[in-house]
Batch of 2 targets.
Target 1
Amino acid sequence: MLLLIGPLVGVSFIGAVQTYAEASGLNGTAAGVGEAFSPLVGIWAPTFSASEVAAAFLLPFVAIRLVSGDRQSGALKLELQQPMPSLSHIGAKAIVLLAAWIVASLPTLGAIGLWKWYGGTVYVPELATVALGHVLNAGLTVALAAATATLTEHPSTAAILTLSVTVGTWIINFVAAVHGGIWERVASYTPTAVVAQLQHGLIRLDVLLVTLTLIAAGLVFAAVWMRLGVAVRRRVYESIALGALTTAIVLACTLATSSWDTSESRSNSFPKADEEALGRMQSPLRVVVHLAPEDPRRLDLEHRALSKLRRVMPRVRIEYESATSIGLFEQTSTNYGEIWYELGGRRAVSRLTTAEGVLETIYSLAGVTPPAESEDNVFRGHPLAVPPRGAPTVFYGIWPALVLAAGLIARRRNA
């Protein structure tokens, strides 16, 4: 895993820097669009995506080997004879795996150092949020792998189960994109969605609590099935009780509404003046959107306006209505594409999917004068037209050499 993750991060970082530099005017005749660029989206999201791939396809096998290997060798029976709860056993293994993941994340620190060396800016809150997303993703992977490794007799079976669950979450995301509705709500708590939100600098309290609950549940489930001397029937009953308790806690966590936008560009939020004006509105707002789940206008509306609206108006209710999933043959319908707003007994309709259009309609219904726009709070971006010099040497040469050297030293000490 250590040998592969360096080049994997390198490919992502080098490609991101090249794209960022070209958009900033490298080898061109104009300044490009780099003035609107943020390192969060342009550099850190693609660079750290290599860690997401490693967490999905490399880390599970390491975790399964650590947990299931003891069962295969008989070491687990010796471990269970010690006066230590099984939860402490599995917790110790989880801590070791987390430490290993931190070591495996060192190439991303190299990417940060190179970016600073190039003269790029680093906004610590948004970078820390991205790192948090990948730590949580690794925690979910470790918990899932530990659970399957203790449940099954053979590591290969555990690996198949782990990958099946991973693929299952991807299917949920696909179904949510096609059908929307409750599937969209469920998909927002899958590992892929959690990482995507945090990679854009958005911390949602409900997502954070649900993720931590699932990690804890996975480790407790592994502790339950680690006890080889306990009857299978009892472990099954305990697992059912754990599942019911986890479901109740997860449902309670989904009611949390707090969120924080740590991105320097405030890409997940309306301007502060608009947020203050919306926060003062006491009447509940109902929005009915007549757009199909796969209509690009719906995605644009959700990303640019409605997701931000939910964060500042807790009494907002948003409904999507459509007869089909693609909306291709609904275009002839008289009301398809309309967005209905209801606030304080007044109603209005619009077809605008921009944030400005949504805000304008809400202000009109509320009888509120839109706040004046301030140029002081406009994010100007951080263009940087610099090629990724030195990065191939670091990720394709120095890092593999260090890993191989460390491996040889470790083998000699263990010999």
Note: The chain has a mean pLDDT of 88.
Target 2
Amino acid sequence: MFKLSPFVISAISLLALSANSPLSAQTGSPLPPAPGAHVANISQPGTSGSEPSIAVDPNDPQHVVAVYQRATVTYSTDGGMSFTQAELHPPQGWGEGGDVSTTFDNKGHAYLSSLHFDKLGTAGYWAHGAGRNGIFVRRSPDGGKTWEPDAVAVKAWKDGDKDIQWEDMPRIFADNVPSSPYAGNLYVGWIEWRIEDSIILFARSTDGGKTFSTPFRISTNAGLPRDDNGGLVGFIGGVDSDGTIYATWNDGNSVVLAVSHDGGKSFDPSRSVVPVAPPYFGGAVGIPGVSRAMGFAQIAVDPRPGKGGRLMVSWSDFSNGDIDVFSSTSEDHGKTWTSRMRVNNDPVHDGIDQFFQWIAIDPITGDAYVQFYDRRNDPANRKTWVTLARSTDGGKKWTNYAWTDTPFASEIQFLGDYMWCTAYNNKVYGIWTEALPPDPSAQPGPNGFRRGSSMMRVGYADFTGVK
């Protein structure tokens, strides 16, 4: 195991600017730094990573688990100031995994979900000719330091199974809400790519991840069978104060909501709730220097007693021409939603991209946070910073803060399909991928670019006392 010290962002005394400040939007004034900001490098030198997840233990916020593919786990015992890599072996008989996500339950156990497979079908049409694959969950009893050796298969295909489908992009989350009658339950949702379509599957555990229910379909409508616009993508779930589960994903040009009132035994028919532009950015709408990007929505739930029913979603799309980050709020359990609110506060139609957003609601304060990649400080739209936006009024206004002060640039780099953030009691924890400069001695690829590696970084901010 190794220990990594955090890189501390230099704090510059800047005037805090409102999310809707005309000065900030029109003159390009520098963003204020996120209060108490620290950034830690958590990946080993010489390795690459992407598609991360992060979780904080509600029983002991000093415990933070940060994961990334290929199925690498790091943990912190000092509230995200430094991280140590845990020893983690793949499930027996399987190779290294990806599409990782992590959570803590109400007893302080950490969980990791991951996808493991032998081979894809084809790059786009994943289910056609796919090999053995499966979704697995494992548990840590000590905040991420050690992990139980046996992984539980939520759904797995064996060699020789007829009509193998492709299980993809699993997301694990827990009911750790004290007022919930289902506190302690674990939930996993994911995409199943089939030969003719794509659907969303769901399973639950009521015994601390030892077993999971038989997966069942919760998407009323099916999507197209390719990992592209038209396919179902981006399952995310959250739990309300009474244990109600709210889950979202993208279906075409809309965000879909599915609701369970019985601890994940069943779901109401899913329905479209928020109109969006296509979530996949490639080709003519690609982001310079990035091989592909996704803007699928995430949902965040305010679980405070007496505040039940407030839901927020955030996504990014190119409805303004360049790519922006948006949010929408429901105050009535998802029945109605506000018009879209632009989260990034640079000028509209400025040709600058903001992308790979992730939203979280602090379960103690109810404040909302959205983290995203941001290129507003580079007129050429190539250098990338990380910005953290905060709303204290349910998404009516967003204040933008600089989380990093040094940009990165990429040349047709794969940054994954998502980043992640979480919040607890005024503390915010984010994780993202940064591209590293390409090796000048490496041979250029077919497109003439030298593709570099990447590193994983965890950001911390403390909004205690910030109005």
Note: The longest helix spans residues 22-27.
